[in-house]
Design goal:
alpha+beta, Phosphorylase Kinase, domain 1, Transferase(Phosphotransferase), domain 1, binds adenosine-5'-diphosphate, binds magnesium ion, Aminoglycoside_PTrfase, Kinase-like_dom_sf, Phosphotransferase
Length: 219
């Protein structure tokens, strides 16, 4: 489908544009043409086990047609005061907890999201729902939790610029008290993984040890 036929995207992230397609349905498309069928399979698996994820209608190459979610992202709701810090931390602890209760598809480990942070959670009437399953698959739950913690720490130290800023540190501290599993067990591996992600700038990579140190301090 050509960009022109779709009009302007109503939302854009770092990697994808999202278009309103028809009533209740959006089209998410990777700008770099990357394949979305793997994440669609994880989403369908998680949905089948009752996890709060938008329903997928079609996946074809970089295009993913899915249920449109109505509501602000957790980040937006936090910034406009709709969502308090304690509620934000308990949602950020609950969502990975429930995700990691889903057995991996090869029966080893669990389902992991690998980009679970407040920009990828939408607060809907049906409760918080998780989007942006690009990196999702089967894996180690502690790795996933450590990654969420590291991302919040990057925001808290100001390495990743986000309006939440230092409040991400308070959210992280509370989150670390609530999470199941061990958020430090895989932290070193997570730092290496994060350093290799193409979305990370050289400055962000250089600041990763400082972000990891904050996670350790707060845990
Ligand atoms: N199913 C959906 N319904 C409504 N809005 C969505 C949906 N999926 C994504 N969005 C919107 O698009 C934005 C970017 O989507 P996301 O999947 O996070 O892509 P990126 O990888 O670019 O961050 C989200 O912040 C959200 O506002
Ligand atoms: Mg996103």
């Amino acid at each position: 489908m050509s960009g022109n036929a779709l009009g302007e995207p109503f939302a854009s992230g770092r990697e994808a544009d999202v278009y309103a397609l028809r009533e209740g349905v959006v089209l998410r498309r990777y700008r770099n043409g990357e394949d979305a069928t793997g994440e669609a399979a994880v989403m369908a698996y998680a949905a089948g086990l009752g996890y709060p994820v938008p329903r997928v209608f079609r996946a074809d190459g970089p295009e993913l047609e899915m249920e449109r979610l109505d509501g602000p992202t957790m980040a937006a709701a936090y910034l406009n005061g709709e969502l308090g810090p304690d509620a934000a931390a308990s949602i950020m602890a609950d969502l990975p907890g429930r995700l990691h209760a889903l057995p991996g598809r090869d029966k080893v480990g669990s389902i992991v999201h690998l980009d679970l942070h407040p920009e990828n959670v939408v607060l809907t009437e049906r409760g918080p729902m998780v989007i942006d399953w690009r990196n999702a698959g089967d894996g180690d739950p502690d790795f996933d939790t450590a990654l969420t913690a590291l991302i919040l720490a990057q925001v808290a130290i100001g390495s990743i610029e986000h309006e939440i800023g230092a409040d991400a540190g308070a959210m992280l501290q509370r989150l670390l008290q609530l999470v199941s599993g061990d958020p430090l067990a895989k932290l070193d591996e997570v730092v290496a993984f994060r350093a290799g992600q193409w979305t990370m700038s050289a400055e962000e990579v250089a600041a990763l040890p400082r972000a990891a140190a904050l996670v350790r301090d707060l845990a």
